[in-house]
């Protein structure tokens, strides 16, 4: 699997014309508007007020009420493939490491040493992923286990015998982790309900694709994209923009206007865009019997709020994960996958180059829109004409999701 990482960008500076109301008052007004919008039928739905995408106060509430409580998709399970594999992650400023222990079980452990809080896997000296048998702190070499119920427990701390220190109670905090369709889901809330039951309906819609067995072949990360996380999630939750943003690339192959958006509510949504020519997808999106509705071949989009979208094509799939890094910045990670066995086919190297080029090109196009929207929001425009098309139903659903958690 190839992994790419793009450099952080400059955040958009909010315009000096921001409304003059105090921060608590502005937050109250924004939440009141969210309450009003979430109660509207889709026919009257419209976009959130600009402050919802720029306010540090609202962002703080989103972190506490959404990101620290919800199941978040953070990786593919095959990125941590075998006993001893690890993946370094930073989730909302929380340094974590996902490990696979000797029994093959996954653990999401804090990466902060219990001694004097050193990062156990500093990016300056440690690869983002690899293998290890123990987690050894590079500062004073305190060493933690990876195995089973001892995961995170201190295995050794040199020169601590002369002081009163009980190493048996010293362990790295572990967070909840589940694997759903091959994706690693993480929850920072120890009391959260399990992830799988709430996604059962989505499982049924995805069941014919066998996504759990697909193989990741390419991952690319864009750090600190200068836009609020919701701008990116909303962009990834509608295909209306194919006709503008992707007019020369996706739209001729997957016309946004032909998208059928399913009637969903709650945490997840689905929609389907048929291929304009199922026999000959212009970007190599060839026909495959398992992706389609009835006789139609096309792209199935499945989204899970707050931060995950999966696009399944006949012979490839792309997952997008977003994580906020501040009120007006976020990270984006895109993973391309192919059905099992596809990497062994002849000429797969060329196919992989094409997939990598497509991921980069489509994301660069999306980034023009995402950055451009955030620049627009920074000028605090009047949102009263920001009406939704029927193709933007998932954005209307997203407001209802946000209202349920933030109000
Ligand atoms: S901070 Fe990790 S051993 Fe000292
Ligand atoms: Fe897009």
Structural class: alpha+beta
The main β sheet shows up as: 9 strands, mixed
CATH superfamily of the largest domain, please? Naphthalene 1,2-dioxygenase Alpha Subunit, Chain A, domain 1
Estimate percent helicity.
10-25%
CATH first level of the largest domain: which class? Alpha Beta
Tally of contiguous helical segments = 6
Question: Do you know the CATH architecture of the largest domain?
Answer: Alpha-Beta Complex
Bound molecules: FE2/S2 (inorganic) cluster, fe (ii) ion
Succession of helices and strands: EHHEEEEEEEEEEHEHEEEEEEEHH
Describe this structure in words.
The chain is globular and about 70 Å long. The protein has helices spanning 23-38, 56-67, 200-206, 229-236, 348-377, 393-406; strands at residues 2-6, 72-76, 85-91, 94-100, 106-110, 129-131, 135-136, 143-144, 154-156, 174-180, 183-187, 215-225, 260-261, 268-274, 292-293, 296-304, 308-312, 317-326, 329-338. The two termini are 42 Å apart. The chain has 2 domains: 23-70 and 201-406, Naphthalene 1,2-dioxygenase Alpha Subunit, Chain A, domain 1 (Alpha-Beta Complex), CATH 3.90.380.10; 74-179, Rieske Iron-sulfur Protein (3-layer Sandwich). The chain is built from 6 helices and 19 strands. The longest helix has 30 residues, at 348-377. The protein is an alpha+beta fold and 407 residues long. Fe (ii) ion binds next to loops.
């Amino acid at each position: 699997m190839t992994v790419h990482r793009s450099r952080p960008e400059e955040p958009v500076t909010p315009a000096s014309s921001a409304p003059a109301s105090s921060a608590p008052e502005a937050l109250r007004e924004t939440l009141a508007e969210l309450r009003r919008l979430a109660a509207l039928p889709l026919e009257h739905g419209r976009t959130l007020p600009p402050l919802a995408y720029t306010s540090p106060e609202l962002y703080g509430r989103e972190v506490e009420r959404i990101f620290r409580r919800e199941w978040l998709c953070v990786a593919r399970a095959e990125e941590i493939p075998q006993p001893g594999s690890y993946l370094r992650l930073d989730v909302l400023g929380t340094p974590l490491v996902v490990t696979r222990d000797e029994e093959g079980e996954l653990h999401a452990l804090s990466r902060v040493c219990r001694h004097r809080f050193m990062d156990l896997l500093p990016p300056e000296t440690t690869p983002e992923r690899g293998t290890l048998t123990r987690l050894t702190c590079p500062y004073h070499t305190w060493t933690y286990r990876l195995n089973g119920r001892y995961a995170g427990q201190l295995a050794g701390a040199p020169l601590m015998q002369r002081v009163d220190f009980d190493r048996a109670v010293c362990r790295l905090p572990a967070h909840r982790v589940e694997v759903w369709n091959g994706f690693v889901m993480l929850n920072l809330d120890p009391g959260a309900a399990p992830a799988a039951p709430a996604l059962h309906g989505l499982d049924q819609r995805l069941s014919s694709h066998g996504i759990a067995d697909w193989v990741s072949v390419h991952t690319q990360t864009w750090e600190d994209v200068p836009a609020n996380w919701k701008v990116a999630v909303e962009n990834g939750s509608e295909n209306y923009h194919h006709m503008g943003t992707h007019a020369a690339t996706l739209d001729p192959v997957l016309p946004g206007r032909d998208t059928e958006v399913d009637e969903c509510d709650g945490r997840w949504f689905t929609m389907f865009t048929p291929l304009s020519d199922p026999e000959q997808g212009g970007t190599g999106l060839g026909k495959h019997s398992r992706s389609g509705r009835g006789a139609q071949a096309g792209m199935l989009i499945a989204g899970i709020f707050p931060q995950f979208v999966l696009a399944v094509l006949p012979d490839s799939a792309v997952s997008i994960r977003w994580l906020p890094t501040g009120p007006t910045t976020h990270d984006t990670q895109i993973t391309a996958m192919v059905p099992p066995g596809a990497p062994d086919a002849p000429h797969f190297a060329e196919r992989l180059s094409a997939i990598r080029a497509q991921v980069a090109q489509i994301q660069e196009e999306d980034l023009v829109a995402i950055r451009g929207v955030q620049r627009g929001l920074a000028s605090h425009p009047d949102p009263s004409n920001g009406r939704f098309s029927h193709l933007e139903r998932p954005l209307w659903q997203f407001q209802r999701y946000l209202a349920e958690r933030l109000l």
